[in-house]
Amino acid sequence: MFAAKTIDSSDKAAFYRDLVAQLKALLEGERDSIANAANTSALIFQMVPDLNWAGFYFLASDEELVLGPFQGKPACVRIAVGKGVCGTAVDLDMSMLVKDVHDFPGHIACDADSRSELVVLLRDNDGVFGVLDLDSPTPGRFDKEDQAGIEKLAAIYVAASSFED
Ligand code: SME
């Protein structure tokens, strides 16, 4: 049984170092991409303070993301590439750190409580194939250290999982 260990989040660098170690341990020996996405979102939602949503969207085609495993309230299923924060991340090929979603034109509100958002890309040798999305009810919740930490967690998820058809 895997038991997530509470970690002190006052030192973000140390916090993400510990979380990286916990995610590696959690995914070790399992290649199923859906099971690993489910457990990755559960670990993040349990461990990262002040979130109201954490989960995955995967590209179903070049034009559209489809909802994957997540924690939080039920969410929008399909997001067009170029739309919302998630679709914009794919379109621009970069992580998106949105301090206040009310200031982001085209933000898609799945949960009215969300006030800030961090979206990082899932990338393998063939390019971007999805995103990992975190929402918080607190404006300005995420900073560059959170972005770097969550990008590392996304990379661990990708490396641990198999995406062959
Ligand atoms: N806010 C996102 C939509 C997904 S939910 O946050 C879960 C967006 O604008 O793309």
TrEMBL record:
Q: Name one GO cellular component term.
A: cytosol
Q: Locate the GAF domain: which residues? A: 50-156
* Pfam families for this protein: GAF_2 (PF13185)
Under the heading InterPro entries, the entry gives: FRMsr_CS, GAF, GAF-like_dom_sf, Phosphatase_reg/MetRdx
Return the Gene3D superfamilies for the record. Answer: 3.30.450.40
Q: Which residues form a coiled coil?
A: none
**Name of the protein in its database record:** GAF domain-containing protein
Q: Write out the similarity annotation.
A: Belongs to the free Met sulfoxide reductase family.
Report the GO molecular function annotations.
Answer: L-methionine-(R)-S-oxide reductase activity
